[in-house]
Amino acid sequence: MNQIKAISLNLLIPLFIASVFAVILYNAQKMPEILFDIVVYLFYGFSLLVIWVSWHFNRNRFIFVIIPLILIYLGFEYFDAKKATLLFMYASMLYPLHLMFFLIFKERGLFSFWGILKIVFVLLEISLVFYLLYYPKESIETYLSIKLFTANFYPLKDLSIAIGIFVLFVMLALVLFGRYLMYATSFFILLLTFYGGLYFLKTPNATEVAFLAFTTIIFVLLIRESYRLAFYDELTSLPGRRAMIEDMAKLGRKYSLAMCDIDFFKKFNDTYGHDTGDEVLKMVASKFREVSGGGKAYRYGGEEFVILFPSKETSESLVHVDNLRQQIATTPFSVRNRKSVKKIYINISAGVTQNSQKDKDPFAVMKRADNALYKAKKAGRNQVIKG
Fold first, then answer.
1. SS (H, E, C) the chain
2. Which end of the chain is more exposed for a tag (fewer CB within 10 A), N or C?
3. Which of 35-39, 110-114, 269-273, 302-306 has the highest mean pLDDT?
4. Who wins on pLDDT, 279 or 8?
5. What does UniProt give as the signal peptide span (predicted)?
6. More confident position, 20 or 215
7. Which residues does residue 296 pair with via DSSP β-bridges, in sequence order?
C-alpha cells in the first residue's frame, strides 16, 4: 500500500506540473507576449537554480541532466536551420538515454573516479554531437531515419520513438522491482514533456514552455530527494530521527510511544555478517512500515525503532505493537551461503508507554518506554511490556 502511495505521489506531482504548463500553452493566443519572454528567463533561472542546489546538496545527477538540456535549447535558438534540424534528430535519440542513465546511477561525488568518468562521458557525448553537426554524415542520417512503424510521428524519427519506448520499459521494470521509485515513476512525464518540446518545436513558445515544465519537474525532484536524504533513513527507507523529532513537536495532549529493538542483533551480525544484518533491518523495517493502529514508525538508530501513536493510550497501542511483534516473529528470513539456504526467525522486544502530566517533553516519555524495553529484554525478550 505504501509503495502504491509513493508511486502515485511521484507520478501525480510531475503530471500536475506538466498539465499546468500544457494549459498555459493551449491558451497561448489569449496571453500577453511578454509572459513568454518571462518563460525564457524562468527556464534559464530554474536551470541555474537546479545546478546550484544540486551542487550544494551533492546531487550531481541533476547537473548532468540540466546542462545538456540548456545546450539543446541554445542550439535551437542560435544554430542555422540545417544544424538545428540535425540537433533535433540527435537530441531526440540521445537525450532520453542520457536522462535514464543519469537518473538511475548512484551518486558518487562529482570529483570522485566515477564522477570524473561521468564528466568525460558527457563531454564526449557533446563533442560527438558537435562533430556530427559541423561534419554531417549522410550515411548516419539515413540510418537514423530508418522506418520502424507504420504510424507517422513526424517530425520525430521512428528510432527516437523506439528509444523512448525502450527507456520507458526499463523504468517500468525498475518500478516493478521497487527501485528508484521517485525517478522511475516521474520519468514517464519527463520524457513526454521533453518530446513535447521537440514535437512542437515550430509552434511559437512551445519549446520554451515544455523545457520550463521539464526543468520545474527536475527541480521538484531535487527538492524531494534533498528532503528524503535529510529526514529518511537510507537503508530502511523509514523516517529517521530528525523526522521523529519534527513529528514529536506536533503531538497533541494524548499519545503513546513504543521503543523497539531487534533481539540479539549484534550476535546475528557477528554470525552472518553485516550485509545479511542489513537485509534483516530492511525486512523488519518493512513490517514496521505497516504497523496498525495509526502508528508511525521511525528508525532511531542501529537496531532500534520508535513508533508514535497520536491520540492513543498505552492499552490501545500495546495491542498493535504486539501484533507487529508476532508478524515479525512468524516471518521466515532466508540466510543464503554457497551451499544452502537456512531459514531463521527474527524477534523483537518493545516497551510501550504514554505521556502524562509529569512529562516535560516526549523525550521523557521515550525514556520510560526505553526502561520498559529493558525490562522486556531482562524478562526473556520477544515480548512487549507496558511502561
1. CHHHHHHHHHHHHHHHHHHHHHHHHHCHHHCCHHHHHHHHHHHHHHHHHHHHHHHHCCCCHHHHHHHHHHHHHHHHHHCCHHHHHHHHHHHHHHHHHHHHHHHHCCCCCCCCHHHHHHHHHHHHHHHHHHHHHHCCCHHHHHHHCCCCCCCCCCCCCHHHHHHHHHHHHHHHHHHHCCCCHHHHHHHHHHHHHHHHHHHCCCCCCHHHHHHHHHHHHHHHHHHHHHHHHHHECCCCCCECHHHHHHHHCCCCCCEEEEEEEECCHHHHHHHHCHHHHHHHHHHHHHHHHCCCCCCEEEEEECCEEEEEEECCCHHHHHHHHHHHHHHHHCCEEEEECCCCEEEEECCEEEEEEECCCCCCCHHHHHHHHHHHHHHHHHCCCCCEEEC
2. N
3. 302-306
4. 279
5. none
6. 215
7. 308
What number is the average pLDDT over the span 353-375? 89
From 303, 304, 313, 316, active-site residue: 303
Q: Which three cell numbers stand for residue 146?
A: 530508418
Domain ranges of the chain: 2-231, 241-386
348 half-sphere exposure, CB direction, 13 A CA radius: 30
**Tens-place pLDDT, residues 149-184:** 777 777 788 888 899 889 888 888 877 776 665 666
Q: How far apart are the first and last CA of the chain?
A: 31
Query: Over 70: is that where the pLDDT of 2 sits?
Result: no
Determine the pLDDT at residue 347: 94
What CATH homologous superfamily does 241-386 map to? Reverse transcriptase/Diguanylate cyclase domain (3.30.70.270)
What is the pTM assigned to this prediction? Answer: 0.78
How do residues 293-312 score in pLDDT, each as one tens digit?
899 999 998 899 999 999 99
Q: Cell 521523557 maps to which residue? A: 364
Can you tell me the distance from the alpha carbon of 350 to that of 8, in angstroms, rounded to the nearest whole number? 33
Q: Is the pLDDT of residue 287 over 80?
A: yes
Active site residue 279: no
d(CA 299, CA 239): 6
Distance CA 46, CA 44 (A): 6
The half-sphere exposure of 173 on its side-chain side, counting CA atoms within 13 A, is 8
Cβ 223 vs Cβ 312: under 8 Å: no
